[in-house]
Amino acid sequence: MKQLSFCLLVLSLSLFLSTVVSAQKKIGYINLDELIAVMTETRQARQAMKVYGDSLSRVDGGFQEEFFTKRDAFFHDSAGMDAATKEAHRRVLQKIIQDEGAFKADAKAKLDSMQQVLTIAVVAKAQEAVAAAAKANGYAYVFKKATGTEDQRRDFVLIAPEGDDLLPLVKKQLGL
């Protein structure tokens, strides 16, 4: 009798587990590039980059203006200068050129750093929104939709079951 009840228990557990295992998991995909392009944070990041870039350009314009002013003064007055004074003016002009070059290199590094920080923040928010939308709608797997030609998309996932595009759900999650 004990063996019969044990066999029935094992049989019922195996039927239950096979039902659970065969349950279909929801699969979706999303084009993160398209999502990021429409996010308000992306527009804000672009605006912040533009403002910062414009301020750096104004500083660089100051270097150029100073150089042109001193260069023009040098050309205008150089006929009446002795060799030592001309050399001193040339050194001043060279120093301005070097300072401008150093400023441009530093400005590019700062601009790149700012862009990286802003990009990381926007991508993190997008990924959080995707995770929240997937969880709220019962998706077990979400793939990044490959962009490009048909052959390039085929190289991304060789075989996959049909899935749902989560972009509308995530846009709704973000209020877009």
Could you outline the blueprint of secondary structure elements for this entry?
Elements (H helix, E strand, L loop, with lengths): L1 H21 L3 E5 L1 H7 L1 H38 L5 H54 L2 E6 L5 H7 L7 E2 L1 H8 L2
The overall average pLDDT, rounded, is 80
Shape: rod-shaped
Characterize the largest beta sheet: strand count, sense, and whether it forms a barrel.
3 strands, parallel
Please, how many domains?
Answer: 1
| Element-level helix/strand string | HEHHHEHEH
Major beta sheet, strand line-up: 2-1-3
Q: Helix count, per DSSP?
A: 6
Radius of gyration from the alpha-carbon trace, in angstroms: 32 Å
Number of strands: 3
Alpha-beta classification = mainly alpha
DSSP helix fraction: over 70%
Low-confidence regions: 18-22
Beta-strand residue percentage? 5-15%
**Terminal-residue CA separation:** 64 Å
Protein architecture, described:
The protein is mainly α and 176 residues long. It has one domain. It contains six helices and three strands. The chain has helices at residues 2-22, 32-38, 40-77, 83-136, 150-156, 167-174, and strands at 26-30, 139-144, 164-165. Strands 2-1-3 form a three-stranded parallel sheet, with helices on one face. Mean pLDDT is 80; it is low at 18-22.
